[in-house]
Amino acid sequence: MGKDPLSISLLPELLIPLKALAEAKDLTVEELANRLLRSALPDDWIESPALEDQLALVPKQFIKGLVGKRFTDEGAKAYSQAARYEFQKHAALKGLDQDEALDELLSIALKNRGDIELINKILVGKHVLTGREIFEIIQSTGHCPMQRTLQDWSGDPLAALCKVFVDAIDL
Q1: What's the CATH number for 73-167?
Q2: Which residues 6+ apart lie within 8 Å of 27 measured at CB?
Q3: Taking the domains of the chain in order of start, what are their residue ranges?
Q4: Which of 113, 98, 97 lies closest to 146, judged by CA?
Q5: What integer pLDDT is reported at residue 95 of this predicted model?
Q6: Residue (of 147, 158, 94) closest to 123 by Cα position
């Protein structure tokens, strides 16, 4: 590794199932945690010496100047796929099936002024956003309700999803 290992505190509701899964797979908790984290990161980030430099975090608060920005259809498609991936990953980490996870999203999406039907279709792979749709959503809400909903639901800033969102902006 080169550096001292990072110590992190896990929530008990994560640590208990993590320990049980590690035992079932005949792994240490550290080995399982490293495998889960490695699988959550894009391959090109794994050996990166400066991961922080690659992350373009989009804060939960409204980004000044986002209203009026155009999004590419290609970027919107990648964003839809990244959102679906994050949804599936966090549902699995929470031990939820797809329907249970979607049920949990309902009140959060409504709080974030999201179109829950559209969000659900995207997250289950039945719809792919277009650049125009993202543009219209941002115009009407001032933010991306699906991204905020996933961040609030997962308790994770979802850096990779934020990067894909920023990359979708047509410069």
Answers
A1: 1.10.260
A2: 35
A3: 12-54, 73-167
A4: 113
A5: 93
A6: 147
* Dihedral angle, C-alpha 19, 21, 25, 30, nearest 10 °: -40
**77-94 pLDDT per residue, tens:** 999 999 999 999 999 999
C-beta of residue 57 within 8 angstroms of C-beta of residue 146: no
> Residue 171 is encoded by which pair of tokens?
């410069």
Q: How far apart are the first and last CA of the chain?
A: 38
Structure-token match 């599936």, residue found: 88
Residue type, 139: Q
Residue 85 tokens read as: 């991936």
Cα separation, 111 vs 44, whole angstroms: 35
Rounded-to-integer distance, Cα 72 and Cα 85, Å: 20
Distance, C-alpha 162 to centroid of its chain: 8
Contacts of 141 (CB under 8 A, 6+ apart): 112, 113, 114
CB atoms within 10 A of CB 9: 6
Count of residues for the chain? 171
pTM for the whole thing? 0.63
